[in-house]
Design brief:
Radius of gyration: 30 Å
Shape: elongated
């Protein structure tokens, strides 16, 4: 018998077995209850879910009751026309069951009425999660009024490049998560209406938004747990900015990124646990940035953790005298996520002076001293109160082992008299130099320690 025939036979048999398995799986899938099949379809992108209608008679109309609808239009003109027809047809053929999630991303141009009608359809279908990304408007765009009276949704994400028209009445009865991006607020009365009609809101994110001709806006949501603000640093027209008042009765986490074009004040923040302030760098507005940062810090009443990132500490040096007005702060954890922190920075020392309950301090970037570091052995003289009574852990990351770093670590070890642990994590680059690593490790172990029970942990950061 031909050897080729012998080799082909097992291959053919294996192929038949695989086809039988596929056939059995298809039959099992077809026999599933419709509720499970709809759930499976809900996990697919909308276009793929609709394509399943050609599989067999039973699948022909299953997609018409899928709970999630996602529409993403591109920039091409011809494809845009097809996209518009596609959305219209899907919404027309879909049955009247509720919509759980409705996502729409497209350019509006001259079709504002169509886009508004699509959103209204989702509202009528008791939508729970609504995500809108709308751009390229031929005229000012009015969101449908029904959008601001919807009682069913719990999540709303608005990304609108421009100035949307807001209705005089706003009430999001069950809205728990609100994200607003690239929106320009220009009417003080309507903006205030928006941010006061949020009785159960828990999460609020404002990203790249602008406040034009608005002096004051108050954000008052009694159940707000998290607020994140990312400023638009490229499109600021108002030099004075807006005063944003945040009432944080239940607020746990506060996040701010930008150059403080606006002034932020936090009130009733006794529940606040964590605050992160990330500051970009503005050569023209250093003092204004610093003053507004200190104003924000003043409102952190009983915060547990504070993280200052990028140029935050550097900016604070331009109005360091304002730090004297800061009340004593209760944060227990203080971190500096900056590429370089000078231990002899006046701003740093002022903040530490006010940190009466500080237990842990962490330097994510390089810790250093100014050029005359040899004279700075007494920069913590008199010793800061927290170094004498509370501070029990210091973490130094990205350690490179140079003389200035070593001197900074020496000062910290010498003055932290109740320290339990200092953790020094080497940079990836430094960890590769094993010979120098051993030398530096020996130097660190020989440093005098103000605390007799202080443990020095040397982490190579090899992960």
């Amino acid at each position: 018998m031909d050897e080729s025939g012998l080799t082909q036979q097992p291959k053919k048999q294996k192929l038949n077995e695989e086809l039988d398995i596929v056939d059995r799986n298809i039959k099992c899938l077809h026999n599933l209850p419709e509720e499970i099949l709809r759930y499976i379809l809900s996990l697919l992108p909308t276009r793929d879910a609709i394509r399943t209608s050609i599989l067999c008679k039973r699948w022909e109309y299953l997609w018409t009751s899928i709970p999630n609808l996602d529409f993403f239009g591109g920039m091409d003109h011809e494809k845009r026309i097809l996209f518009m027809k596609y959305v219209e047809r899907v919404l027309l053929l879909r049955n009247s069951t509720d919509i759980k999630r409705f996502s729409l991303s497209c350019q509006v141009l001259n079709d504002a009425s169509h886009v508004s009608a699509w959103i209204s359809t989702a509202v009528r279908r008791n939508v729970q999660k609504l995500y809108l990304r709308l751009y390229h408007f031929a005229e000012p765009f009015s969101l449908p009024h029904s959008l601001f009276k919807c009682v069913t949704w719990t999540e709303l994400e608005l990304e609108i490049y421009g100035i949307p028209k807001l209705p005089p009445t706003v009430c999001f009865t069950n809205l728990k998560s609100l994200i607003i991006r690239y929106v320009t607020f220009s009417n003080e009365y309507l903006t205030q209406k928006l941010f006061s009609g949020l009785p159960v809101l828990e999460e609020l994110e404002l990203e790249y938004c602008n406040w034009v001709n608005i002096k004051v806006v108050s954000i008052s949501a009694p159940k707000l747990l998290y607020i994140g603000i990312t400023e638009d640093t490229e499109n600021q027209n108002d030099e004075k900015g807006c005063q944003v008042m945040i009432s944080g009765v239940s607020l746990n986490i506060f996040y701010n990124f930008g150059e403080f074009y606006n002034e932020y004040r936090v009130y009733n923040s006794s529940s606040l646990v964590n605050a992160t302030i990330v500051v970009g760098w503005s050569l023209q507005r250093q003092r204004q940035v610093a003053q507004r940062m200190y104003i924000l810090l003043t409102g952190f009443y009983r915060i547990k953790e504070l993280i200052l990132a990028d140029c935050a500490l550097k900016a604070l040096t331009y109005a360091v005298e304002v730090a004297e007005l800061l009340p004593s702060k209760t944060w227990e954890y203080l971190a500096f996520d900056e590429s370089l922190v000078n231990l002899d920075s006046v701003a740093l020392l002022k903040i530490l002076q006010k940190s009466s309950c500080l237990k842990t301090i962490e330097f994510y970037g390089e810790i250093n001293l100014s050029s005359d570091y040899e004279r700075n052995d007494r920069i913590l003289d008199p010793v800061l109160p927290c170094f004498l009574s509370q501070l029990n852990c210091i973490k130094v990351c990205n350690y490179e082992g140079d003389e200035k770093e070593l001197s900074a670590v020496k000062i910290l070890l010498k003055n932290a008299v109740v320290l339990d642990k200092m953790v020094i994590t080497c940079s990836h680059h430094f960890a590769e130099d094993l010979e120098n690593l051993k030398k530096v490790h020996e130097q660190l172990l020989k440093l005098p320690r103000g605390s007799k029970h202080c443990e020095l942990v040397f982490d190579l950061n090899l992960s």
